[in-house]
Amino acid sequence: MINVPTHWYNIAVDLPKPLPPPMDPYEGESRIALLNRIMPSELLHQEFTALQYVPIPEEVRDIYARLGRPTPLRRARGLERLIGNGVKIYYKFEGALPGGSHKLNTAVPQVYYAFRDGAKEVATETGAGQWGLAVSIAAALIGVKATVFMTKSSFMSKRQRVLFMRTYGATVYPSPSEVTKYGIEALKANPNHPGSLGLAISEAIDYTLQGEGRRYIPGSVLEFVLMHQTVIGQEAIEQIPEEPDLVVGCVGGGSNFAGLTYPFIGAKLRGEGFEGTRFLAVESKAAPKLTQGRYEYDFPDSGGLLPMIRMLTLGHNYVPPPSHAAGLRYHGAAPSLSLLVREGIVEARAYTQEEALEAGVMFARSEGIVPAPESSHAIRAVIDEARRMPKGSVILFNLSGHGLLDPDAYERVS
Amino acid sequence: MGISRPSLGLYLTATYPSVRHFIEVLNGVRGLVDFLEIGIPTGNPKYDGPVIRVTHHGAELKGLEAVKVVDDYGRYSRVPVLMGYVADYVDSLNEAASVARSVNAVSILFPDLIFDYPELIDRYVEVMVSNGLRPSFFISSKTPYKLVKRLSEYNPLFIYLGLYAATGIKLPIYVEQNVTTIRGIIGDTFLVVGFAVNNPDMVKSLIKAGADGVVVGTAFIQRMSNLESALSLLKWLRGGLP
Question: Which of A29, A100, A336, B70 has the smallest number of Cβ neighbours within 10 A?
Answer without folding.
Answer: A29
